From TrEMBL:
Protein name, UniProt field: Cytochrome c oxidase accessory protein CcoG
Upper classification of the organism: Bacteria, Pseudomonadati, Pseudomonadota, Betaproteobacteria, Burkholderiales
Gene that this polypeptide is encoded by: ccoG
Top-rank lineage group of the source organism: Bacteria
Spans traversing the lipid bilayer: 39-58, 87-108, 161-178, 198-215, 342-362
Classification via Pfam families: Fer4_18, Fer4_5, FixG_C
Domain 4Fe-4S ferredoxin-type, chain residue ranges per copy: 259-287
Keyword Ribosomal protein: no
Keyword Metal-binding tagged: yes
PROSITE patterns in the record: 4FE4S_FER_1, 4FE4S_FER_2
Keywords carried by this UniProt record: 4Fe-4S, Electron transport, Iron, Iron-sulfur, Membrane, Metal-binding, Transmembrane, Transmembrane helix, Transport
Length: 481
């Protein structure tokens, strides 16, 4: 139930106090703003959405460039073919993301939230649609306060139809990373979408529609955990969006022809535009608040006002707490920004990124897993030979056919039965191969009972005549008592 327009009930007659668990908030109508930081925000909106919507349609080696084929357990990223066994690369990506977040937050606060977070990006897109259909801030307020008429119904219907179109296309694109998007489009056109595809398109579309169209700042203020622990990453040398009270106070309106000193006022004209453009509705003049997402819309708005009054820019700006308190110049503040914790974050980030790149560069074009046959660890066969059975999974991580040979070493007289010739794997194919290893009775007797180390060598034959690539996989050979 919407509590925003309901009066607070009187206290109970017994004097007890009622504590409301939901704090009702008025609807926020962000004003459009133009400026340097707005350009940066929209540049990142275009860049991130071109990447998100465009990658599934990009052809690559006869398939789409990025495809996470869960059914086949193969993940295609341009020329890379990854398997679940390559989970270490995902771990490295998560570590890089975490340290990048630590690094940029320690340098300049919530840059991720203000410029690249999907919640911010889609809220910007939905607000742009809203402004085009319903008008700017004043027009939207008048429209919502007015009665239901033909114009209001038409504008509201058009806005929600556009929101739903963007949301469903977003859900469709998301699913297109897991099901080939051209196949998905063909199924959608012919009404043959599968149950799971339909569910995730609608689920992701509904989440986009609800978060960007209705919840907006509530997601940032109450649902996102980042706002709650960001203070642990800030210190007095972190660049944050700051209002300069020494220059701005006392605030108050005045004529453009009057200098602040002449009327005993600061540079702040108390126009309220910094509050009107804020997507979370805060007043930056009250200092740093956890609701601030670092979008810098208030900086653009304030700079525009300062230009109109012929005052210097920077009443609201990126600054550090130490810099504001001690009156440092920008050069002095930047010198303290790159302090030990930032350098440590940066060094770790570079090291992990370099290790990931080196690992991908040196990665073999195939993988092998060796699994012992648990049903029969060891058995006695003809002529007293001891036999162990193994299953080898050979995964071709290249998008061309490859030929392999399999050998085993480590024990005297070790034999591969039956002798396996050259194995040919199709592009990105994974194949299970069952092999048996035998040792003669005299070897088994000399070894004694127990598990003895061996290794399989799977060698890729280079079709161009160059050096072969080989993978050694350790295992054990069990001799019974």
């Amino acid at each position: 139930m919407d509590m925003r327009n309901q009066a607070t009930p009187p206290p109970p007659p017994d004097g007890s106090k009622t504590i409301w668990m939901y704090a009702a908030q008025p609807k926020i109508y962000p004003r459009s703003v133009h400026g340097w930081f707005a350009v940066w925000r929209w540049a990142l909106v275009f860049a991130t959405q071109a990447l998100f919507y465009g990658l599934p349609w990009l052809p690559w080696n006869g398939r789409q460039a990025v495809l996470f084929d869960l059914e086949a357990r193969r993940f295609f990223v341009f020329d890379l073919v990854l398997y679940p066994q390559d989970f270490i690369y995902l771990t490295a990506l998560l570590l890089i993301s975490a340290y990048a977040l630590f690094f940029f937050t320690a340098v300049a606060g919530r840059l991720w939230c203000g410029y690249a977070c999907p919640q911010t990006v889609y809220t910007e897109i939905f607000l742009w649609i809203e402004r085009r259909i319903e008008g700017d801030r004043a027009a939207r307020i008048r429209l919502d306060k007015g009665g239901l008429g033909a114009e209001k119904l038409l504008r509201k219907t058009g806005k929600h139809a556009a929101w739903l179109a963007v949301s469903l296309w977003t859900g469709f694109t998301f699913v297109g990373y897991f099901t080939p998007i051209r196949l998905l489009g063909s199924e959608a056109i012919h009404g043959a979408l599968g149950a799971w595809e339909s569910f995730w398109v609608l689920f992701y579309g509904f989440a986009t529609y609800g978060n960007a169209g209705f919840m907006r700042e509530q997601v940032c203020k109450y649902m996102c955990p980042y706002a709650r622990f960001q203070s642990a990453m800030f210190d007095k040398d972190t660049l944050i969006i700051s209002y300069d009270p020494a220059r701005g106070e006392p605030r108050g309106p005045r004529s453009k022809k009057v200098q602040p000193a002449e009327v005993g006022l600061g540079s702040c004209v108390d126009c309220g535009l910094c509050v009107q453009v804020c997507p979370t509705g805060i007043d930056i003049r009250k200092g740093l608040q956890y609701e601030c997402i670092g979008c810098a819309a208030c900086i653009d708005a304030c700079d525009d006002v300062m230009d109109g009054f012929n005052y210097p820019r920077g009443l609201i700006r990126y600054a550090t707490q130490n810099g504001m308190d001690q009156g440092w110049t920008s050069k002095q503040q930047w010198r303290r920004v790159f302090r030990p914790r930032v350098l440590i974050y940066g060094a770790i980030l570079v090291a992990i990124s370099a290790a990931l790149m080196a690992s991908l560069w040196l990665r073999t074009p195939f993988r092998v897993d060796v699994i012992r046959d648990r049903a029969s660890l060891a058995r006695l066969v003809d002529d007293g030979y001891i036999e162990n059975v193994y299953r080898l999974q050979i995964m071709n991580a290249a998008e061309s056919s490859q030929r392999f040979t399999i050998t085993a070493e480590g024990l005297e007289g070790l034999q591969l039965v039956p002798a396996i010739g050259v194995q040919t794997l199709s592009p990105a194919e994974a194949r299970w191969v069952t092999v048996s290893l035998r040792v003669p009775p005299e070897t088994a007797q000399s070894l004694g009972a127990g598990a003895h180390p061996i290794h399989f060598e799977i060698r890729r034959l280079d079709p161009s005549g160059g050096p072969d690539r080989a993978v050694l996989e350790k295992s054990t050979f069990v001799t019974p008592r």
